[in-house]
Amino acid sequence: MSSRLLRLFTGLVLFGVSLGLMVRADLGLGPWDVFHQGVADRIGLSIGLVVNLTAVVVLLLWIPLRQRPGIGTVANVVVVGLVTDGTLWLLPDLDALAPRIALLVAGILANAVATGLYVGAGLGPGPRDGLMTGLAARGHSIRLVRTGIELTVLAIGFLLGGSVGVGTIAYALAIGPLVGVFLPRLTIAPRTAAEGEPA
């Protein structure tokens, strides 16, 4: 369990850092973060606080879907937004394009590694992932569910003033293949009965 917890919290911290890097790059964010930023700008809260509040609201949508949160789900609600705000506090705004591109690339890579770590820990999905899998479990295509959710939050975030740009496209194109590379390598296999736990 200690190894799983270490991976979980390392992944969640890295996820928050990755979001902070992409915000500072100011070249466009992933769909959910366009939404978070748009809401934050409109209501005057930090983006990290909006990330956490959105997670709570999404978690409430699990109730009719009969999804059960895990330790990782609850930790996700608390950790990611706090680390995002901390990262933004530490990183200054940048004007030059080259370092902003570097931040974007680093943010996308860190996001993929973070996803591999916290999902691979097997201690519960993040609220947004759980919403997607909960809807898919009701007989809908997971690809269509994910696409529908992300297009919806992207559109709302854009209308609210969230950052849409080349980074949004880069994230959309890169995150799936990158997670596909990192997730199998970072997933902790379940222990078998021979190793001391029930199969």
Please tell me about this protein's structure.
Keywords: Membrane, Transmembrane, Transmembrane helix. It holds the Pfam family DUF6198. InterPro entries: YczE/YyaS-like. This protein has 199 residues and is mainly α. It has one domain. The relative contact order is 0.21. The protein starts with a helix and ends in a 13-residue tail after the last helix. Helices cover 74% and strands 0% of the residues.
- In terms of DSSP E residues, the strand content is under 5%
Low-confidence stretches: 192-199
Outline type? globular
- Topology pattern, helix = H, strand = E: HHHHHHHHH
Query: How helix-rich are the residues, as a percent range?
Result: over 70%
Number of structural domains = 1
Count up the helices.
9
Task: Give the biggest sheet.
Answer: none
Summing up helix and strand content along with how strands pair, one would put the structural category as mainly alpha
Counting DSSP E segments of at least 2 residues, the number of strands comes to: 0
Radius of gyration from the CA trace? 17 Å
**Through-space gap between termini:** 15 Å
Mean pLDDT: 89
Pfam family, one: DUF6198
Keywords: Membrane, Transmembrane, Transmembrane helix
Transmembrane segments: 43-63, 70-91, 97-123
